Amino acid sequence: MAQQRMLRFIDVARDMPDKRPADARRADFHEIYAEYADAKAKEQASRCSQCGVPYCQTHCPLHNNIPDWLRLTAEGRLQEAYEISQATNTFPEICGRICPQDRLCEGNCVIEQSGHGTVTIGAVEKYITDTAWEEGWVQPIRPAQERPESVGIIGAGPGGLAAADMLRRRGFQVTVYDRYDRAGGLMTYGIPGFKLEKDVVMRRNAQLEEGGIELVLNCNVGEDISFEEIREKHDAVLIATGVYKSRELGGPGAGLKGIVRALDFLTASNRRGFGDTVPEFESGELNAEGKRVVVIGGGDTAMDCVRTAIREGATSVKCLYRRDRANMPGSQREVENAEEEGVEFVWLTAPKGFTGSDHVTGVRVSKMRLGAPDATGRQSPEEIEGADYTEDADLVIKALGFEPEDLPKLWGQPGLEVTRWGTIKADFASKQTSIPGVFAVGDIVRGASLVVWAIRDGRDAAEAIAAHIDAQKKGASVAAE
Fold first, then answer.
1. How many domains does the chain have?
2. 10-residue averages of pLDDT along the chain (481 residues)
3. CB atoms < 10 A from the CB of 345, how many?
4. Residue 185 lies in domain
5. Which of 24, 148, 257, 463 is the most buried (most CB within 10 A)?
6. Does some domain include residue 144?
7. Beta-bridge partner residues of 152
8. Distance (Å) of CA 474 to CA 147, 221, 346, 435, 480
9. Which residues are in coiled coils (predicted)?
10. Does residue 140 form part of some domain?
């Protein structure tokens, strides 16, 4: 009987939740997609082909049991669908909103490749978990048994919080240290509200705290507390700081006022959304209102910046990217949304310098063409000689990616080994660093990546840390005998 509710991709077309009109969504920071109604969620879930080798699951970093919770949704068994969904994913309501499904699960859907249009996996995932919150199925963590051992986690982003959740469920005492005044990392301050409304993140933070996880905020490790103090307080330490150091641009005029970092721009906007007073926004330094904005970069952060600038009332917003549309690293869905909202993409262009005496007035742009493939197989951009021009700008936002801070130096830990890229060197399986009892996960290990990969790393680290503490405890017990 259950099977009859599935395999309906032949007679039921793909149908995303309604998208708010571009003119309406330009005026605020609310999420742009409406919620599925129950009947629509069941209908779209029923399109799943329940294939024997689910590529959607294989290409999900968390290996979510996607066909199973799609089938349960189609059958109206939503609470069971939620239980299956959250068994492998600490934050399914967040992944449903911000994962680039077009590059991961949906992009590898079997029926998509057969020409029927992918199952709307992300929208159904969001619907399942939002319903779970509304129905009270999401409960605070209640460990079956408390344990005396404690774990200190540095960084309250998705990796750190995922690890905290899993360790707390095992009964460990967990303390999370973070430099910001709110937990969530980039989910709170880096991702705009039109992709992830902040009450969704704050609700999850509150659930973690209610479950017994201690959040120590406004705490800068190396200044407010030393790394050694954290080590002494806990049986194990997890480093999950992420990467926050922006890649810089050179060239003439690179130091002019009005050239800002993407994260500073996005953080100011998100703080405004919380109702905070942001002097840099009020002064106009990090405010796009009435300005000609140029964003440099082609990833998801660049997409967040251009769409934020539109909402702040920029007179024009252009995005410069050195390759073409087909070779852009950002989500194609996000590019489409940005274009609908009025962003102009200037493909095959790269900044060469900046004009202006004190404040930037323009970007000197080189036109590019794609040449021979590099070591990764991607065509390398080459400058076209004599094709330079100036793009007028009052605000230039650098969205060129992020690099790790020098943690061994900042924390006075020369024994903390790093790679040649500056990321922390950690064992692939155990997540252990060169310092015994200290583990590391997420972007600070793998470099700037996706939230879903940080969640995966955090969950894996929790398993490794629990095994490490158990081994230490067993060793101490044997020694005592």
1. 3
2. 55 79 95 88 92 94 97 96 97 95 92 86 96 97 97 98 98 98 97 97 98 98 97 98 90 96 98 97 98 96 97 98 90 92 97 96 97 86 95 97 94 97 96 98 96 98 97 77 61
3. 20
4. 150-243+407-480
5. 463
6. no
7. 175, 237
8. 14, 31, 61, 20, 10
9. none
10. no
